[in-house]
Design a protein that fits this description.
Layout: E1 2-6, H1 12-24, E2 28-31, H2 43-59, E3 64-70, H3 74-80, E4 88-90, H4 94-102, E5 108-112, H5 118-130, H6 137-152
Parallel strand pairs: 1-2, 1-3, 3-5, 4-5
Helix pairs in contact: 2-3, 4-5
């Protein structure tokens, strides 16, 4: 599997270690930055590029996912979710990693590097990679509604109206 990775300065050490771990597990890892430590770097560009690469790969039939890091993971998730076709989930335990894939067919996860040990991060990512989308009708229907809104702004009628 191809894994696209991006971070900010807070996640740089994790990113470097994780790239080595994933490569040794047989994954193709693509690093979208940064290339060095800069305490005032701007993570949105790195995360957006990683998310764009995931979408490009998936549309080309390449088995690909993304992982973005930051201090909390919140901003990185927001940035990745600005890319059409991305469903980025903030992950903080094994259950959220699994449900992100199983129920939401998430194709990017975001993790707070200051919130977890390296071992925890590895376990979240491995669970995320190993878990398939369930394909259940209710989950597919909900993902379809998100995609429709993303494409043309359509929503179901407001039941309160």
């Amino acid at each position: 599997m191809r894994i696209h990775i991006a971070t900010d300065h807070a996640g740089l050490e994790f990113s470097t270690q994780l790239q080595q771990h994933l490569a040794s597990s047989g994954h193709e890892v693509v690093d979208h930055g940064p290339v060095g430590y800069d305490p005032v770097d701007d993570y949105p560009s790195f995360c957006i590029r990683a998310a764009q690469a995931v979408v490009t790969d998936q549309r080309a039939g390449v088995d690909a996912l993304g992982v973005v890091f930051g201090g909390s993971g919140n901003g990185e998730q927001i940035a990745a979710n600005k890319v059409a076709g991305i469903r980025a989930a903030l992950v903080w335990n094994l259950s959220t990693a699994e449900l992100a894939r199983e129920h939401n067919d998430a194709n990017v996860i975001s993790i707070g590097a200051r919130q977890h040990t390296f071992e925890e991060v590895v376990s979240f990512i491995e669970r995320f990679i190993a878990t398939p989308f369930s394909g259940d009708d209710r989950h597919a229907r909900r993902i379809g509604k998100i995609a429709a809104f993303e494409t043309d702004g359509s929503l179901d009628p407001d039941p309160r109206a």
